[in-house]
């Protein structure tokens, strides 16, 4: 299949050739010579003083090489895990940023906090020895709930942090909002919870640290979405290893969803332990261990109000959110419920003024950070629940009220009152098309049919917009980012004309080896088969920021397009020399450099060859070789959006919610590979449905124990829980990315929770239910039906 | 202790601890890493292999229990270089995988289904795969892949 496969095609994925044969290369699959195995001894208490940690019995187990504790790391001057964003509160003061040691010393602050690392020749030995680590705890009262943590007299997780308040942040124009509320004809108010989620990529985290005494070189293999950032943060701030002496490799990674985009303690511990012992030390996370050590997501408590005029037009929105940070600040923790949340509260609507306050709160729980969507699903849920509620209270159809308030296509670019300017979009176009595809017109007949079977049918809707393609560095810097957010690509054209791309993003399921190859094939006119994509190795690839926030195509793809442009420009210079024409007269099309208006031409392969054998070549003015690099820093976020409809059937006998139809029309900008875009949307919608119906990270309120700590307790969607999704794209072109792309990885997760809950509430409308918190499990729904029915009977 | 079994058509004898799981023997002792481990409660199905033609979660079997058994892993479907098995091809053709971690288990589970139900309906597939978690695809393209793979297998037989 030696042909150009360009933008808009759906070739089969290159990476699948190895995956379907079981030939992926994940971190847990890697064996190094004389490799040792490490196991963590973790805190069994949510909050306790470590009076002593006795490792002597563990050290005596045969095969055990070392047992390290937090005190050992402290004594070796190991730094705390850094936070990538520093936000400021209303008062201009920086957030409270207590130290986050890779292993605890002095105190543990959540169940799962690492206390000791046991290294042995085999996993069995390390495991057995880990159980012999004796910790003398002085158990302290714990607090896991957001409201409880802020109460006066709540357990203090840090002596230096008053009221467990990390930061009291805000955005928007409070006086304007107050004035608008005073003049409102109607105010819709809601209190809601955005449930704590545990991302659970199917591959558990793993890390191998290796140190070579002879060269002083460290290597870390890790399940990471951003190996360069791990090298930077861990090398510079935690372990003080110079960047050129540290290689970080993230090979095939089995799903990320944000969970693998943080610098984790275990990465530092295995690398440091390898340095102490020489050779390689491997740690593979058990799933139950992952539940108490992978960063969690969401976990908000929110009060929100929407002010409307008599005609149902939105006037203003006021939002107060408490956001759980967990016990320590994770890499992006404080950025998620602030900068990635409040700026999305305008949704796809004209809302003249918005004010949002967010209190970031420490609790005795696993650190909370980004999980697919990260802040934007939470914002969408607030906006869409308020809109549904306002429609119901004012007696306006919920689709109609959305149409009445949507930003029209002609109004773009649209400046919201909350910082961001949407460059492009057509929310009404998405909604109108989704309404047809979802057969909204036929819904009442279907509802009646379901009712005849004793079932409640509900129709739900959600629109959404997201800010992705993270991020314009300068703006991010103003908002508290402590690093740049550009991306990089190198296009290496080999002497034979085949191409290797080195890109700073990371592929862990998104199909980058395919999509990026299509972009090169399209731009350079080389066969798709002749392009290879390399990522995930800091020794092979120039510095890059990795993959998160739907940024790979938007920012990485843009860097790639820029690098392609540079290759073409250099090729034109070579061709101008060889064809004896002016540079301006050389055009490049379909893999050929030609002199405009003539049949004189050189193929891409000929030009590549002569770049490396520069005999007929302008050596006086041009270097040999054909390899170009580009860094791209976006000028704005991108704003994918769309409209989702869900239809659910509820069995009042059991409380089970069954999704009968799911329809989504999304605007993701230019589509490079439709097959992959659909796959991303499917997966995102499935995870959003997981949040709406099944998933819930639950802590015991007094002991601080995680109650949903396994796949048997934390329920994720299975094949028989989901319908087929009906999808279409209604794309507008992004005005500022080179190819017009917007990103698609998070759309599904952002649009779907609100659509599902809207449908569940609609189904329960006959019972007078106006809101249902997530997840809408059978037990939850059954209890609502019971209590609502009893209340109705009493009335 | 020593145990013997046939692995992907090859007679195999290995020294194991009696407490070892089949998944550990395959992955650690034999370094065949196509079979994955995604949980510790036998819920995810990434470790599914065939034991005597039936799909089994290899994390649920102790190594001594497979003495004399015929075992097949994902590596035994088409090797490294052979033409893809129709079910592997169907997963690739229908975008039935993203990160690839659940895929070996999905393939082995799907093949067991098709062995006793050569023309499975969508609902059969969704019910059968209930023991295999995929976090990436939302299952739609997995279902599509199994339908296509089964059809290709029927045509080939």
Automatic annotation (TrEMBL), chain A:
Alphabetically ordered keywords of this record: Molybdenum, Oxidoreductase
SUPFAM superfamilies, sorted: CO dehydrogenase molybdoprotein N-domain-like, Molybdenum cofactor-binding domain
Organism: Hoeflea marina
Protein's name in the database: Carbon-monoxide dehydrogenase large subunit
InterPro entries, per database record: Ald_Oxase/Xan_DH_a/b, Ald_Oxase/Xan_DH_a/b_sf, Ald_Oxase/xanthine_DH-like, AldOxase/xan_DH_MoCoBD1, AldOxase/xan_DH_MoCoBD2, AldOxase/xan_DH_Mopterin-bd_sf
Pfam families on file: Ald_Xan_dh_C (PF01315), MoCoBD_1 (PF02738), MoCoBD_2 (PF20256)
The Aldehyde oxidase/xanthine dehydrogenase a/b hammerhead domain, residue ranges: 21-141
Gene3D superfamilies: Aldehyde oxidase/xanthine dehydrogenase, a/b hammerhead, Aldehyde oxidase/xanthine dehydrogenase, molybdopterin binding domain
Parts forming coiled coils: none
Tree of life domain: Bacteria
MF term (GO), any: oxidoreductase activity
TrEMBL record, chain B:
Parts forming coiled coils: none
Gene3D superfamilies given in the database record: 3.10.20.30, [2Fe-2S]-binding domain (1.10.150.120)
InterPro entries on file: 2Fe-2S-bd, 2Fe-2S-bd_dom_sf, 2Fe-2S_ferredoxin-like_sf, 2Fe-2S_ferredoxin-type, Beta-grasp_dom_sf, Diverse_Oxidoreductases
Top-rank lineage group of the source organism: Bacteria
GO molecular function (one): oxidoreductase activity
Keyword annotations: 2Fe-2S, Iron, Iron-sulfur, Metal-binding, Oxidoreductase
Name of the protein in question: Carbon-monoxide dehydrogenase small subunit
Organism of provenance: Hoeflea marina
Taxonomy of the source species: Bacteria, Pseudomonadati, Pseudomonadota, Alphaproteobacteria, Hyphomicrobiales
């Amino acid at each position: 299949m030696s042909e150009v496969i360009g933008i808009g095609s759906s070739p089969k994925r290159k990476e699948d050739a190895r995956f379907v044969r079981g030939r992926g290369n994940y971190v847990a699959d890697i064996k190094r010579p004389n490799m040792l195995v490490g196991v963590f001894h973790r805190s069994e208490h949510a909050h306790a003083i470590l009076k002593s940690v006795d490792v002597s019995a563990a050290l005596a187990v045969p095969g055990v090489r070392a047992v390290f504790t937090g005190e050992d790391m402290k004594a070796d001057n190991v730094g705390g895990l850094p936070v990538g964003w520093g936000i400021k509160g209303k008062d201009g003061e920086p957030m409270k940023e207590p130290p986050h040691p890779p292993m605890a010393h002095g105190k543990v602050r959540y169940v799962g906090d690492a206390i000791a690392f046991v290294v042995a020749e085999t996993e069995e030995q390390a495991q057995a020895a880990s159980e012999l680590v004796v910790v003398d705890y002085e158990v302290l009262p714990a607090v896991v709930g957001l409201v409880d943590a802020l109460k006066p007299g709540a357990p203090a997780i840090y002596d230096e942090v008053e009221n467990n308040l990390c930061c009291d942040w805000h955005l928007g124009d409070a006086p304007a909002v107050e004035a608008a509320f005073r003049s409102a004809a109607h105010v819709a108010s809601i209190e809601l919870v955005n449930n704590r989620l545990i991302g659970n990529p199917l591959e558990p985290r793993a890390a191998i640290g290796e140190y070579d005494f002879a060269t002083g070189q460290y290597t870390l293999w890790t399940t990471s979405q951003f190996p360069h950032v791990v090298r930077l943060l861990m090398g510079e701030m935690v372990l003080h290893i110079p960047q050129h002496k540290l290689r970080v490799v993230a090979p095939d990674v089995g799903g990320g969803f944000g969970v693998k985009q943080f610098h984790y303690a275990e990465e530092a511990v295995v690398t440091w332990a390898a340095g102490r012992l020489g050779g390689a030390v491997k740690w593979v996370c058990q799933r139950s261990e992952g539940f108490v050590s992978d960063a969690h997501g969401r976990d908000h408590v929110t009060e929100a109000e929407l002010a409307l005029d008599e005609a149902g037009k939105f006037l203003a929105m006021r939002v107060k959110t408490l956001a759980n940070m967990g016990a320590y600040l994770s890499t992006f923790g404080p950025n998620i419920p602030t900068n990635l949340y409040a700026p999305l509260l305008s949704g796809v609507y004209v809302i003249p003024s918005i004010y949002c306050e967010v209190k970031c709160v420490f609790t005795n729980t696993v650190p909370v950070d980004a999980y697919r969507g990260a802040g934007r699903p939470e914002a969408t849920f607030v906006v869409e629940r308020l809109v549904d509620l306002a429609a119901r209270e004012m007696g306006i159809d919920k689709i109609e009220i959305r149409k009445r308030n949507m930003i029209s296509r002609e109004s773009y670019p649209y400046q919201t009152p909350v910082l961001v300017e949407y460059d492009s979009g057509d929310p009404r176009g998405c909604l109108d098309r989704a309404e047809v595809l979802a057969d909204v017109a036929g819904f009442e007949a279907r509802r009646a049919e379901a009712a005849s079977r004793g079932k409640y049918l509900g129709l739900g809707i959600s629109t959404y917009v997201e800010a992705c393609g993270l991020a314009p560095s300068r703006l991010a810097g103003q908002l508290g980012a402590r690093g740049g957010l550009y991306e990089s690509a190198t296009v290496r054209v080999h002497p034979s004309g085949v191409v290797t791309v080195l890109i700073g993003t990371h592929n862990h399921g998104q199909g980058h080896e395919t999509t990026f190859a299509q972009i090169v094939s399209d731009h350079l006119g080389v066969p798709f088969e002749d392009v290879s994509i390399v990522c995930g190795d800091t020794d092979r690839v120039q510095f890059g920021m990795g993959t998160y926030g739907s940024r790979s195509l938007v920012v990485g793809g843009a860097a790639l397009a820029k690098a392609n442009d540079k290759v073409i420009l250099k090729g034109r210079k070579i061709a101008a020399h060889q064809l004896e024409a002016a540079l301006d007269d050389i055009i490049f099309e379909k893999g050929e450099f030609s002199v405009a208006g003539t049949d004189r031409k050189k193929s891409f392969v000929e030009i590549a060859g002569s770049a490396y054998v520069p005999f007929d070549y302008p050596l006086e003015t041009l270097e040999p070789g054909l390899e170009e690099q580009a860094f791209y820093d976006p000028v704005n976020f991108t704003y994918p959006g769309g409209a989702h409809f869900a239809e659910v059937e509820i069995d009042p006998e059991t409380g089970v919610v069954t999704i009968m139809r799911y329809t989504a029309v999304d605007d993701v900008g230019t589509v490079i590979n439709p097959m992959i875009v659909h796959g991303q949307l499917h997966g995102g919608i499935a995870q959003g449905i997981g949040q709406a119906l099944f998933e819930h990270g639950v802590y015991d309120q007094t002991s601080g124990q995680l109650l949903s700590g396994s796949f048997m307790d934390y329920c994720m969607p299975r094949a028989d829980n989901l319908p087929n999704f009906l999808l279409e794209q209604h794309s507008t072109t992004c005005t500022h990315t080179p190819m017009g792309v917007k990103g698609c990885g998070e759309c599904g997760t952002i649009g779907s929770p609100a659509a599902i809950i809207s449908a569940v509430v609609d189904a329960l409308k006959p019972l007078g239910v106006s809101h249902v918190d997530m997840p809408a499990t059978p037990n939850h729904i059954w209890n609502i039906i019971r209590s609502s029915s009893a209340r109705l009977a009493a009335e | 202790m020593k145990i013997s079994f046939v692995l992907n058509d090859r007679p195999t004898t290995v020294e194991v601890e009696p407490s070892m799981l089949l998944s550990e023997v395959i992955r650690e002792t034999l370094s065949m890493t196509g079979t994955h481990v995604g949980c510790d409660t036998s819920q995810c199905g990434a470790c599914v292999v065939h034991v005597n033609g039936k799909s089994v979660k290899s994390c649920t079997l102790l190594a001594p229990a497979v003495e004399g058994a015929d075992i097949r892993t994902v590596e035994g479907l088409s090797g490294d270089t052979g033409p893809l098995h129709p079910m592997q091809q169907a997963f690739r053709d229908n975008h039935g995988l993203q990160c690839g971690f659940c895929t070996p288990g999905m393939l082995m589970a799907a093949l067991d289904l098709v062995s006793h139900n050569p023309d499975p309906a969508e609902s059969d597939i969704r019910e059968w795969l209930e023991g295999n978690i995929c976090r990436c695809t939302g299952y739609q393209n997995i279902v599509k892949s199994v339908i296509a793979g089964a059809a290709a297998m029927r045509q080939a037989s």
